[in-house]
Amino acid sequence: MALIDLGRGGAGAGAGAAPAKPRRVMIVADPGRESAAAMEWALSHAIAEGDDVLLLHVNMPNPNSGAAGGGTAPSRSGSGGSVSSPLAVFLGGGGAGSGAAGADAGGDFMEAMRAACSARYPRARVRGVRVEPATDGREAKAQTILAESQRRGVELLVIGLRRVSSFLGLRSASGSSRGHDTTPEFLIEHSKCLCVSVQKKGQNAGYLLNTKTHKNFWLLA
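Request: output the structure for the sequence above.
Response:
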């Protein structure tokens, strides 16, 4: 299968790529390991110096409390019951230090993500934006992200993909999994720009990428 064309010569632009025309990249930002993996992939394979990077978070209502705000609870580690800090772990390798860990644990994950982008690409313009849902319903988050990406002229949209257990997933008559976050699929299908969903496969096993033309594309770390 051919490499995913990111507009810069394939799936791995990276920090050592030849200079290219700056472009606008949007990363969907949430306080979980999925967003951390998506950002990690984007920084390593998609973003270049001079790019305009927009971190977008949609303030969805918290299903547990019914209150609007951050919406997503911090991810928990698979080996224990303590709350993990995936952004802090990632930033620990980028020189951001314990300040990033405190930001992530304290809920200021947007600042932690912004710091990671700026540390890797100092000349990139990095902004964090929080928006309210533009509509109601099951696809409210996806429709809001889609509208923002189109309004802001985004050229590359990156979103983390949550791993779903086939044992626990219940399927409806249409074949879709109940409780499954369909936001990445919706964005890939309807985005006018290139949309890439990213799922990290273990610590050093690489990434599973999906676009409109590539399904389950395995990219080694």
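The beta strands are 24-28, 52-58, 125-131, 156-160, 170-171, 177-178, 194-200, 207-210, 217-219.
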